[in-house]
Amino acid sequence: MKDSGSRRLIWVDALKGWLMLLVVMGHAIQWTLGDETDDSHVWNIIYSFHMPAFFAVSGWLAYRPGRQGKGPTIGHSHTAYLIVRRAQQLLIPFFCWSLVIILSRRLNFFSAMAGMIEKPDNSFWFLWALFFIYLIFHVSVAVSRQLRCGESAVILLVGAFLSALMVVFQLNSFGFQFIAYYFLFFSLGYFIHKYPWLQITHKAWLAALFAVWVILAWWWRMHELPPWVSVFATSSWLQYAYRGVTATIAILVLINVSPLLLDSDHWTNRRMGVVGAWSMGIYTVHLSILTMLLHGIEQFIPKSYYVAFVCVLFFSALIISLALVYLIMKNKYTARLLMGKF
Description:
By secondary structure, the chain is an all-alpha fold. It has helices spanning 10-33, 41-47, 50-62, 75-104, 109-118, 125-147, 151-169, 176-194, 203-218, 227-230, 236-261, 267-277, 279-298, 306-329, 332-339. α1 crosses α11 (236-261) and α13 (279-298) packs across α14. The two termini are 26 Å apart.
C-alpha cells in the first residue's frame, strides 16, 4: 500500500473509479427506464451500496493520522481552513456546473438556481451533500476538542440526531435527507480507518459478510422492504435500517478488500485510478449530457432494445465525459472552477 502521507493511494482511486462506473451505469439504466427503473434488478443492486461507498471512501480519507496539511493544524483556524478548502473543492463546482446547466437550457437564472439550492437532488446533489457533511463533521470534531470529550461519541451523537430529524420530520429541503443519511456512511469510513478492530483481514469473515450482502442486496428496493421483512413489520425506520445495514456490510467488505485487490501497479488499477481521480468531473459532466445523449441514441436504437440502449448510453456518456474532463483539466482556471482543483 502506498504511503497516504506522501502519495495518492492506488486502491482508493481505483475503488472510486469502479464506483464511478457504477454511477454512470446506474444513471444510464435510470434514464432509459424512467418510471420503470425500480423494477430493474441490476439498478437496485447497484444503488444498494454505490453512493454510500463513495461517502465512506471520503470519510476514510478524512482520517489522517500524523499528517500535516497545508493550513494551520490546530484550533479554530484549522477548522475554518478545512471548511473553506471544502467549499472551494465542492461548492464552487456545484454552482459553476449549475450555471452551465442554466445557460445551456436557457432557464431563468434566479428561479433555476433557487430551485437547485432548495432541491439539489434535481442537480449535482453529491457535491452539495458532501460539502455539508464535511462542514458538520469538522465542526463536530472541533466541538469535541473544545469540550475535551470523545471525538467518536460526538460524531455518533450528531449522526443519530440528524437521522432522527430525517425520519421523524421527513425533512427533504436543501438536500437534508442526503446530508443526514450519508453522514452515517462518511463517519463509518472515518471509523474504519481510525479503529483497527474494523479493519477486517480474515478471509472467512470477509467471505461471510459478502454472502450476507448478496442476500440483502438481492432483495433491496429503493422505496420498499423485501416481502420477507414487511410481513412482520413496515415503517420508515425499518426501511432506512434495511438500506443502512445493506450498505454498511458492503462498505466493510469493499474498504477491507480493496487494499488487497486494487493496490498493485497493474495497468487496470492505473486506468481505474485515473477514472477515480477524475470522478467528480465525470459525475458532473455525464449528468450534464445524459439527456442530450438519450435523445440522440433514440434516433438509432429503440428503447425496447433495452440492453443495447443502456450499453450505448453508458459507453457514450463515459467516453465523452472522460474526454471533456481531460480538456477541463488542461486549463488551470477551468480545473479550479469546474473540478475544484485549488
